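Q: Joint fold for the lines below.
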Amino acid sequence: MDFSFTKDQELIRKSIKEFFEKECPKDKVRELKEDKKGYDPKMWKKMVKLGYTGLVIPEEYGGTEGEFWDILIFMEEMGRNIVPTPYFPTVVFCAMPILEFGTEAQKKKILPKIAEKGEIWAYAQIEESSEQDASGITMSAAMSGEDYTLNGSKLFVSYANVANQLLVVARTAEAENPEEGLTVFIVDAGAEGVVCDVIPTTARDMRCELRFDNVKVPRDNILGEPGKGWAVVDYIQQHAAVLKAAEMSGGAHAVLNITVKYAKERKQFDKPIGSFQAIQHRLVDMLTEVEELQYLVYKAAWRINSGSPSRRLNSIAKAKANGVYHRVCYHGIVMHGAIGWTEEMDIGLYHLRTRSMEFDAGNTDYHNDLIASELEKSEPEFLTLFA
Amino acid sequence: MDFSFTKDQELIRKSIKEFFEKECPKDKVRELKEDKKGYDPKMWKKMVKLGYTGLVIPEEYGGTEGEFWDILIFMEEMGRNIVPTPYFPTVVFCAMPILEFGTEAQKKKILPKIAEKGEIWAYAQIEESSEQDASGITMSAAMSGEDYTLNGSKLFVSYANVANQLLVVARTAEAENPEEGLTVFIVDAGAEGVVCDVIPTTARDMRCELRFDNVKVPRDNILGEPGKGWAVVDYIQQHAAVLKAAEMSGGAHAVLNITVKYAKERKQFDKPIGSFQAIQHRLVDMLTEVEELQYLVYKAAWRINSGSPSRRLNSIAKAKANGVYHRVCYHGIVMHGAIGWTEEMDIGLYHLRTRSMEFDAGNTDYHNDLIASELEKSEPEFLTLFA
Amino acid sequence: MDFQFGKKEEEFRSEIREFVKEHIPQNEYGHMFEEEHEDKSWEFSMSIAKKLAQKRWLTLTWPKEFGGMGASFMERLVFSEEVGYWGIPGVGMGVSGTAWVGPSLMLFGTKEQQEKYIPLIAAGDPDGVWCTGYSEPDSGSDLASLQTSCVRDGDEYIINGQKVWTSAAHRSRWCWMAVRTDSNVKKKHHGLSLVIVDMKSEGLTVRPLKNYVGLHYFNEIFLSDVRIPVENLVGQENNGWNHLMQALSFERGVALGFTASCRRMLDELINHTKETGLIKKTLVRQRLAELEADLEGARTLAYEAVWKMENGLSRIYEPSRDKANVDLLFEKMSRFGSDILGAFSQLDPLHADPRWAKIGGIYENLFHACPGIAIAAGTTDTQRNIVGQFGLQLPRSY
Amino acid sequence: MDFQFGKKEEEFRSEIREFVKEHIPQNEYGHMFEEEHEDKSWEFSMSIAKKLAQKRWLTLTWPKEFGGMGASFMERLVFSEEVGYWGIPGVGMGVSGTAWVGPSLMLFGTKEQQEKYIPLIAAGDPDGVWCTGYSEPDSGSDLASLQTSCVRDGDEYIINGQKVWTSAAHRSRWCWMAVRTDSNVKKKHHGLSLVIVDMKSEGLTVRPLKNYVGLHYFNEIFLSDVRIPVENLVGQENNGWNHLMQALSFERGVALGFTASCRRMLDELINHTKETGLIKKTLVRQRLAELEADLEGARTLAYEAVWKMENGLSRIYEPSRDKANVDLLFEKMSRFGSDILGAFSQLDPLHADPRWAKIGGIYENLFHACPGIAIAAGTTDTQRNIVGQFGLQLPRSY
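A: Joint structure:
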């Protein structure tokens, strides 16, 4: 058992941390809130140069061939610094499933562009119902000759406004089981018939509505097998759940630290407010929650990294992250008093991202149901020992 | 608007309070915990003599023809004093629906026995599934000539061990809608084929398993219409919900008072423990909850008393009571420290009744669902004003 | 026991609803706290204030001789409810003037002050808009520790210092300010005074303090050698703490309309789940029911507090109990409502584009407003302190 | 990062499971806290203790020369987990002896004390059963205020006073007692001592203190001129506070097996919902999932604390963090489990009749045990105080 990172991992963390602290101080975050693109292309270029977009991509496709741990650490630090970039959609939502499900040709063509050139990708799954399971996907892709024709619309597609390419999940066949008949398409964001509008959201992570009006997609642009797209979606959700939870864990840690620091400095009734039990005990509960979340994320990541992912742990990590992140932000702000509610303090910047993060890769109800499904399948030890 | 009781009502409360304080101090409650019958026949006789079992029964049937308020006040005081008696099953579960649904002959025959003689009744609805809705009722009653034959078993029938008569809900016809085809029977507790076993429960309110083996019941013993028994069950549940909530509200109030008193007296670190925010703020939240519950119960009762019962308010009262009663007991005990966990203190006696009270007349999930059904039917004001 | 309003109140309610039908567009509900943010909405608010003043509703609890309608506590409750449910703007003109400046001046202001300031408020005049300068950077919950100095200089006072969290300062003509007129005191509660500061004074600057969503509600006020005439002292010099406590007591009941706002928001949510069929889902049903029960409870307690006031039975703790209760309700509503709205709950409430925003963006608004609500007018914990001391008679815990 | 146990620990785990298969009937799981209640279960517990002693597991963390197996923290974790999951009784023989009396005597006892008492504990002997007398009626969380007097009289001490909440006193041969040897002290922490009291002493009476369900777990001890030889002083006279702190540090980790008990109880619940089909219900699924996530979290934190101890990284707050966390988990489990079991959750845990009781009555047991758990070994709030001070370096809040 080992609850620590290796020295190499600590070094990676240190360099990422320093990069973000230098390149993305909170003033930059505030500045990017008003930016139309929602990210800083110069910073993005630097990230690409440092190999960050290729962290989990093998060397043969232009990446640095890191472990899952490397990207996990990266996401934690990103969450700690709330860095606005198209990293998550590009790398987690798109590059990772392409690496897993792509044909050799697709991988050779696409992955180096992401790893070496920082090509931006976006992932389109959610629709008007905002359901995260397969039943929420109704957009149709009809086959016509060698091509498919996409019609319908997608919502909350992050950074689609600046994406070159899209992964789009659509329904190619009707089936009783909604998880059947789905197909994932690689779609050129500039293709005819694709219209993109930015939806104003509090996280300013460039959520877009994408409308597809008779968009032609060649058959070669299918990722994975036609009709078996749910396997790809599921892979994306499982991995994104853990990495989004890592981002949230980093953010929750930062919020806790900010608040504890404030509770030591701020005095009322001639005492630091942290000496009042109402404040102190809540901070203690926050500490426990934050530490718990951190290790739950690591535990899920450890299973992925060692090649035996646990659906149960992945869902636990995300379900916990959803709850903890909000509670820590809410109570953190309230403990600050009025100043915590202003844009002068950093804490609000974290809270603005709560709902965006919650819905990426699955909200709590959704993951709780997945956990229950795993419990249904499991066999308790007390029955097996004496069996 | 008036948030106070009338002087007459206050006098009624005072006399009930004094009766319980005199006749049922906590030592008596402890003593009755070990009693086989689960109540004190002498005290029961006194209650009958004072007219308590006839509170809501018209004078023509031997009662005192009080308002619903009177029995509500009675239940509050009973809950405050946690008095072990077969009052609730006899009066609330049985006398009240008999008054509502009984034929003139049934009312004339039965109600005076309850009001004047204190005949004990019990109500059998719940079965093995422990579900509170109609789907939980599977026991069958088959018609054979002029009689019905009951087969099956009922669980958690309170005070059936000492009951003379039973109200039993059984299925006389199968229907797609489980609320159809139910019939309520008046069954002699001593009838051939009825077997009663006391289930040991923490509340010691004599929960019984009743088994019915070819028990013959004459057709005249149907309460309400055959096949329309759900109307009776629903009436019972709606009224029992509010009166059980009143009992719980009285109990929760008592627990709060006990705990506040202790928090003022008990010193640690040279201060009353009530001066620590962790304790004080929790007590404050308890106060709010207890006061809220109290008025929610009154509000539901007011609607019943004025002849326009509100299903929404009835369910709100019980759903709230379930949560508040447990939380107040749990936190009350913990605030006491170790002494709160012992049988020396009264607070544990209240907590022992938590789960029994929760399941009488509907648990929280059940009532939440009923509330949602009412919301579905309601029309919001903002739509009607401008319609 | 009787939980119904009387005939008089119901008639008043109908009258208000007629007003609403005529003047308040209902497609824009839910922009809580936004009144002072934009020039446009402020102008609209002030136009409604003028109309309310004509009805004497702007200052309905004031005595008739001061331009009020001498409304009872119950009528005030009805009015607050309708304001909350229909989102009637302009009601407080920044709250301070109508809620406590006016009543305080009646109580301990000079006749000259009464004559100068009160009619402007009651008339809904732009010169009747007030803000309140209590909080300072280092004194929030601990109000008595305030440091802004106010030194007599002939016929004037000279004020130096800083105020913060001043809502509506950017819309106000006057500031109702607590200052320190004596700093050589043993107890910090001594040496305080209340003064009226002209917001147009030389040396006074207002700096916007936007909230983290971008809403301009709060301000800082910087005071550098600001001079006010001595007649702007309200009440006695150095007796400010007592006056302050009196003024604060008028703040009670400000939260009255909150449960009606909750009612409206919950009605909107229920209606949305009916329209979309979401109400058939088990978890949606459970959440709606829990909110319904909590709201019914909060509302009933709020009524009880008013009834006690009306009947002279009020103990001091009820408004604090209700504020803390409503803080928790707002938080739960914002969370449950967001859960029900799903991914749509991430929309920016300040740019609630009807193309995407569900229910006009009110839940997104609430989600980010609710920590602010829990802080404003005494944090939830501060309210609990008050209830502990006065409701449960427990020793001070802070 | 690696969340797996090593080969050595896994082998140890297998060995324990073999022991369980052979000696521990699994149809009686879940009678937490009941070991000391009935003579019959106490006898069975002591028979298992004897067997555990033969394996050196009773005192597994002790050095070999004292009859232990010199187990690592990780091995102790494995053992605690198996104890919790399989409900192995007799493990602590009333907890005190194995957990802190033995280790404390090794640290600051005399050679004679070590030779007299330690082997009896390690052997699982009835004369190796200890109880601990810290709490008094007026000193619970505030331990230093204890008043039981202990006055030197020649070669003896004379003890007068009262102890309370003494678990297992009715089963114990000795009491590990904190007393006041000097009452003329400025600070209440001074003048305390630790002594060994023979439970058979004249003047000592034990009075059962049943819990409100009827379980005999706690006792009161009354001491009236109880004489003990001076050699029963442990450590230095009047240095008791320091010794007490050392002894208390051995209490840490007592809660280790708790998450494994939770695992077992949750496994039983999941299994029950599968057998009955309840697991198909939305609300059951959500509750099970939430418990699963909370338990996985609590367990992982508990592992982290052990790993830190093993690697000398331990800061002082982790065991308190974990105790508070487990208190909350127990409460939630008891509530959610009861909700799932429905009306059956009202059964009396002390008379869990298999005709009606679901899952052997463990949830009914838990429901009424859990306020006791939240109180025992430092209330949840006391743990939060410790985490606040030592985990967050915040000022004392009490």
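Q: Anything notable?
A: The mean pLDDT of chain D is 93. The radius of gyration of chain D is 21 Å.
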